[in-house]
């Protein structure tokens, strides 16, 4: 049984100018001890889908799903109170901006111990010891002293380590890391990613890494799910994905990596992710896709076979070339 | 922290002199001659006038009067009211506990209701409670205080007979305790029913005096909370699975308190300076009424002395607010 199973998850926000569909029929499957990434550019609904799983979206959001189950619990018909018993304990999340994700009014120690107080039976002494242990686990030097530090006294990297310590406090089965390194220096980025993967290996938890950085993906995870405009467009093992991306969007993302560039000029993807008012007909990526034809712009694509990475494309790529082309014409 | 307090205390010095100068000058700028006001309609002869002027020191040049006033302050002498012939400090201290007692009750009520109301409104933004509360706050803020006080008296005192109309204590009791706080002194006196009487006299003036600060605090809390509720650390707190009461009441509120404490500080300042309308309507023997009477009588010494003490109290309140900032948000402390 998968640890986290999501089928056909959609999230709609009611705004003053009508409904906005941020997530559009996403499937996510996470096995225990899994290490996967959700990749996509800003506005592709990566964070929103995971916040929906955590139950952290504002009340303006409407969440629908055929299946949304975590560790045998159906998340859909759970009360807020039942949900709060799971999040922070079995399923926890760290965020993009470590500096602003810690409460400036409380010490780091207080914020770590708060989780322990909520979810465990440890007494005061036990919580203190566990907090020190956690600080050591995430590589914060002089933990006893740092527990009494306030967030503004820590650097960005240290703050993110403290956030990780907080998320790991109750030994979660699933950790969702939402762009954990985006706000950090490049050197610190590598350290934090290394820390996350080694912790994942040590503790056996599953890790979902949300990122827009294909470079991060390559070095870190085993499995990749690519999202575009609230839809899942491809899912593959990381090696296979880099070797042979099947969706044109994935291919374009990979081509935009400086490491893989072959020409003098770095290839880009023209345009931006469609928003509330400019959702195209047919395939959502068609306006930016260099392979798109009239058929793409008129008819919504269906998922391709697992061999083709479940690519949401009429003509999934094989080694850079569109397939199925003749069938359509 | 100590350095912070000391540096703040240093800024008291110029403010203090500024206040002495302003209070000294303002009362003298008002038209009207204190001696003639004192003499009443019949007036005084010129010889008697000069005699009195000499006695009160009004014949000296204005700068000398100011210097004398300053010298007096540093000797702990705020002068003598030339109407009552009693030292200004004694007069002030006799009346101040009444004002203080009422102010403390009013601001406590305003905080205890205003902050939770603001938090609940912010959390339920746009819903019925929020709109109802903000409308009520607006009404409370814009209502004429004297009208509100009279309305309450008509309903609860004359109509229902639940509370006394005015004063601090029923005439059946004579309480003269050590603190000057009627409730505490009544409790200490051990007289049966005295405490109950003191409390019942406090209720209406407290409600009236609390109304405007309550409205301000509620609105300020709401807007500060709305800002804070969108912050990342609030999401982090929720991601820990904490209950809404703890997320909103602790993680968010503590960060939202800074502007709230500021308006509380300002409210305390104005309350202590004497709630003239409230004190007048409820015949509350506080300093507000005394200050107004002194101004009408051109009682120079009383006005400048009273203003000075009030200014010092307001400065102390402001310092307390500044210290509270640091306690609430450690980031400010280290700056």
UniProtKB/TrEMBL annotation, chain A:
GO cellular component, one term: plasma membrane
Record's subcellular location: Cell inner membrane
InterPro entries: AAA+_ATPase (IPR003593), ABC_Ni/Peptide_Import (IPR050388), ABC_transporter-like_ATP-bd (IPR003439), ABC_transporter-like_CS (IPR017871), Oligopep_ABC_C (IPR013563), P-loop_NTPase (IPR027417)
One Pfam family, short name: ABC_tran
Keywords: ATP-binding, Cell membrane, Membrane, Nucleotide-binding, Transport
Membrane topology: Peripheral membrane protein
SUPFAM superfamilies documented for this protein: P-loop containing nucleoside triphosphate hydrolases
Domain ABC transporter: 6-254
Gene3D superfamilies per UniProt: P-loop containing nucleotide triphosphate hydrolases (3.40.50.300)
Superkingdom of the source species: Bacteria
A GO molecular-function descriptor: ATP binding
Biological processes, Gene Ontology terms: peptide transport; transmembrane transport
PANTHER family noted in UniProt: DIPEPTIDE TRANSPORT ATP-BINDING PROTEIN DPPD, OLIGOPEPTIDE TRANSPORT ATP-BINDING PROTEIN APPD
Family the entry assigns: Belongs to the ABC transporter superfamily.
Protein name in UniProt: Peptide ABC transporter ATP-binding protein
Organism: Roseivivax halodurans JCM 10272
TrEMBL record, chain B:
Compartments (UniProt record): Cell membrane
Transmembrane segments: 9-30, 100-124, 145-165, 198-218, 256-282, 302-328
GO cellular component: plasma membrane
Domain ABC transmembrane type-1: 96-325
Source domain of life: Bacteria
Main localization category: membrane
Annotated InterPro entries: BPD_transp_1_N, MetI-like, MetI-like_sf
Annotated keywords: Cell membrane, Membrane, Transmembrane, Transmembrane helix, Transport
GO MF terms held by the record: dipeptide transmembrane transporter activity
Keyword Membrane on entry: yes
Matches recorded under CDD domains: TM_PBP2
Membrane topology: Multi-pass membrane protein
Pfam families, A to Z: BPD_transp_1, BPD_transp_1_N
N-terminal signal peptide: none
Membership in a protein family: Belongs to the binding-protein-dependent transport system permease family.
Protein name stated in the entry: Peptide ABC transporter permease
Originating organism: Roseivivax halodurans JCM 10272
Lineage, broadest ranks: Bacteria, Pseudomonadati, Pseudomonadota, Alphaproteobacteria, Rhodobacterales
């Amino acid at each position: 049984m998968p640890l986290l199973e999501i089928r056909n998850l959609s999230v709609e926000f009611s705004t003053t100018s009508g409904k906005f569909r941020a997530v559009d029929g996403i499937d996510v499957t996470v096995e225990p001890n899994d290490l996967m990434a959700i990749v996509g550019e800003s506005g592709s609904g990566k964070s929103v889908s995971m916040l929906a799983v955590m139950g952290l979206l504002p009340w303006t959001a409407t969440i629908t799903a055929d299946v949304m189950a975590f560790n045998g619990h159906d998340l859909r018909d759970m009360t807020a109170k039942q949900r709060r018993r799971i999040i922070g304990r079995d399923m926890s999340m760290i965020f993009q901006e470590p500096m602003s994700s810690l409460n400036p009014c409380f010490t780091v120690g207080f914020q770590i111990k708060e989780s322990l107080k909520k979810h465990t039976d440890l007494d005061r002494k036990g919580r203190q010891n566990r907090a020190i242990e956690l600080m050591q686990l995430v590589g914060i030097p002089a933990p006893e002293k740092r527990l009494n530090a306030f967030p503004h006294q820590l650097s960005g990297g240290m703050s993110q380590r403290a956030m990780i310590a907080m998320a790991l406090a109750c030994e979660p089965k699933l950790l969702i890391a939402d762009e954990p390194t985006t706000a950090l220096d490049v050197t610190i980025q590598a350290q934090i990613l290394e820390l996350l993967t080694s912790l994942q290996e040590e503790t056996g938890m599953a890790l979902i890494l949300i990122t827009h950085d294909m470079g991060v993906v390559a070095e870190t995870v085993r499995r990749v799910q690519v999202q575009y405009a609230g839809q899942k467009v491809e899912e593959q093992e990381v090696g296979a994905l880099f070797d042979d991306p099947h969706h044109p969007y994935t291919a374009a993302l990979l081509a935009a990596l400086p490491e893989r560039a072959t020409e003098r000029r770095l290839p880009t993807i023209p345009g931006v992710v469609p928003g509330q008012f400019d959702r195209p007909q047919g395939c959502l990526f068609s306006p930016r896709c260099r392979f798109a034809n009239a058929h793409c712009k008129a008819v919504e694509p269906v998922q391709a076979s697992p061999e083709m990475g479940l690519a949401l494309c009429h003509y999934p790529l094989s080694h850079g070339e569109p397939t199925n082309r003749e069938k359509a014409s | 922290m100590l350095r912070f307090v000391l540096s703040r205390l240093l800024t008291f010095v110029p403010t203090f002199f500024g206040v002495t100068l302003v209070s000294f000058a303002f009362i003298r700028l008002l038209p009207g001659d204190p001696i003639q006001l004192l003499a009443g309609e019949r007036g005084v002869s010129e010889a008697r006038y000069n005699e009195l002027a000499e006695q009160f020191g009004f014949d000296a040049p204005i700068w000398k009067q100011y210097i004398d006033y300053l010298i007096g302050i540093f000797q702990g002498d705020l002068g003598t009211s030339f109407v009552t012939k009693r030292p200004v400090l004694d007069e002030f201290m006799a009346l101040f506990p009444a004002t203080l007692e009422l102010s403390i009750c009013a601001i406590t009520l305003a905080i205890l209701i205003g902050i939770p109301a603001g938090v609940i409104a912010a959390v339920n933004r746009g819903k019925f409670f929020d709109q109802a509360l903000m409308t009520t706050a607006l009404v409370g803020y814009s209502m004429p205080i004297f009208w509100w006080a009279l309305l309450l008296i008509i309903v609860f005192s004359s109509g229902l007979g639940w509370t006394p109309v005015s004063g601090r204590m029923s005439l059946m009791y004579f309480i003269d305790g050590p603190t000057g706080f009627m409730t505490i002194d009544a409790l200490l006196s051990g007289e049966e029913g005295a405490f109950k009487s003191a409390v019942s006299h406090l209720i209406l003036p407290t409600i009236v005096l609390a109304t405007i600060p309550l409205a301000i605090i509620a609105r300020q809390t709401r807007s500060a909370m709305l800002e804070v509720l969108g912050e990342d650390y609030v999401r982090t707190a929720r991601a820990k699975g904490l209950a809404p009461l703890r997320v909103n009441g602790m993680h968010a509120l503590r960060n939202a308190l800074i502007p709230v404490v500021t308006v509380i500080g300002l409210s305390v300042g104005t309350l202590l300076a004497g709630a003239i309308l409230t004190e007048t309507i409820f015949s509350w023997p506080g300093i507000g009424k005394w200050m107004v009477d002194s101004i009408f009588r051109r009682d120079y010494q009383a006005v400048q002395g009273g203003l000075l003490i009030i200014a010092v109290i307001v400065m102390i309140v402001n310092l307390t607010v500044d210290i509270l900032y640091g306690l609430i948000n450690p980031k400010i402390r280290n700056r």
